[in-house]
User: Fold this.
Amino acid sequence: MVLCLGAVCLVCSALLAGVNALTEAPIKEAAEKALKESIGAVLPQGGELSEERGVSVGDQNYVYYECTLAEGSTCYAVKSTVQGFGGPLTLMVGVLSDLSINNTSVLSHSETPGLGAKCATDEGFMNQWKGFNGVLKVRKDGGDVDAITASTITSRAYTLAVEQAVAAVKAVQAQNEQTKEETNE
Amino acid sequence: MSKLSLISRGILKENPTFVLVLGMCPTLATTTSAINGMEMGLATMFVLILSNIVISLLAPVVPDKVHIPVYIVVIATFVTLLQLVMQAYTPAVYQTLGLFIPLIVVNCIVLGRAEAFANKHGVLESALDGIGIGLGFTLSLTVIGMVRELLGSLSIFGWKIIPGDGILAFVLAPGAFIVLGYLMVLFNKLTKKN
Assistant:
């Protein structure tokens, strides 16, 4: 009895270990590809991308990528995570040097399928972020963001994530100014 | 029993959703749209076929006292395999279904078929039973998803049929119960006549 259960468990774990070893690399690759694609989607084309860097605002830490454009200005892709309706909502937000939004893209979410999950598929909602330069609040709260029908909580969370990304870019810009001044001295 | 009737039985006479009323948790949770329901059905079918095959092979040598733990280990292994493979090669599907894949382990259809069928029958019959029940589950979930998607967001498989917003309640949990209930009545009415 024990022998049989033990043998079955042994075979199963061996099988899983094998498949895990086989799929580890593709899973990592897929995740990296998704990240690269999201950065490409939120930033203007043709810039030179920096390494992954970190910045903290308050007690929140953000991962961001700096991108120097051909005409000399700098833009940023910031990874921003907030609490959505069904769990964490992680966005990649592209911010230009004048702090306006270039575009946004959803990295991962666990919003309700058919409702909040539309934040990653609904064209009307997604397209409004292209070149968005208004008040970062949903219309219900007196801002310029069109919420997804019946998903105000998700829309608010999404807006908050974008707002946080802008705050992070502000912190990065202040930091860069400071180091510039220090080197001048 | 003929091979064909093994398959058709899973779709009609012993339809897991509308007749046996098994696996209600994934049925209610994933059918917000036709495509979600279908993907969940196919994932379950994959696990069901493989676990039925392996369990029909294992059943003669597994002592009675430990048969449930052994079946669960086998089922959990296949589910984890499926999860890893999906994550590696179809990340987009994994993104939408990721939450529900681990739930297949505790889907009573899979363990139910292992207990009620696979451990008493041969490999071929068990595989066919898995295909039949799996198809029945997939079709039921797709139909429920289609009805909910049509009423809730006025589209089918993501194609907008009528412009507008639809009746929101059908995308939410109450709509799942209502649609499931009416479809169950309809299904039983139609199949009983024949």
In short: The beta strands of chain B are 155-156, 159-160. The helical segments of chain B are 3-11, 24-30, 34-58, 67-89, 91-97, 108-116, 123-153, 173-193. The first strand of chain B starts at residue 155 and ends at 156. Residues 144 and 180 of chain B are 7 Å apart (CA to CA).
